[in-house]
């Protein structure tokens, strides 16, 4: 492994360790020394990668933001170009798209459990009192707008129920958020059937 690869691996270890601790303890009850000890590495070396806890936290929120915007671009779930839907958003029926997206999300999250924690972190980051840059970044991204367009299309084709598309999208994502947070807390929970969630939108 090259020095550059070693550095990237160590940076990833810091991020994943910090993510776990921020979710378990909260931002303000997690110290940079706690993260360094859990990695493990010296606090001095930790500052070589991230100059402060706030910078580290903001980097994690940025990761979450990129994952969120990927829904609207490609339907991907998580890193590495994982496909959450069997095709482009405009090429398959909206209800099938949402179902395939959730199947991909749940399957990827079971292999990469940090995704559950990322949902928790992004929910926390939107709250008042969190580091402002991270909070504004978390508030700036949402899958609701792209979902609303799909829901509107589904309404026109008679697949989805009538109602405000944006409100329906909000209900859909609030349900997904809640499920992901519960699964972050209880690792023994099975993934729900995506059809249960998509049923929120259907007639």
Description:
This protein is mainly alpha-helical and about 200 residues long. The protein has two domains: about 1-50, Orthogonal Bundle (Arc Repressor Mutant, subunit A); about 55-200, Tetracycline Repressor, domain 2 (Orthogonal Bundle), CATH 1.10.357.10. The chain has helices at about 5-25, 30-40, 45-50, 55-75, 95-110, 115-125, 130-140, 145-155, 165-185, 195-200. The protein is elongated and about 60 Å long.
What is the C-level CATH assignment of the largest domain? Mainly Alpha
Number of helices: 10
Q: Note the run of SSEs as H and E.
A: HHHHHHHHHH
CATH architecture of the largest domain: Orthogonal Bundle
Q: What is the global morphology?
A: elongated
Largest sheet: none
Please provide the count of β strands.
Answer: 0
- Provide the residue-averaged pLDDT: 89
CATH superfamily of the largest domain: Tetracycline Repressor, domain 2
In short:
The chain has 203 residues and is mostly helical. It folds into 2 domains: 1-51, Homeodomain-like (Arc Repressor Mutant, subunit A, Orthogonal Bundle); 57-198, Tetracycline Repressor, domain 2 (Orthogonal Bundle). The protein contains 10 helices and no strands.
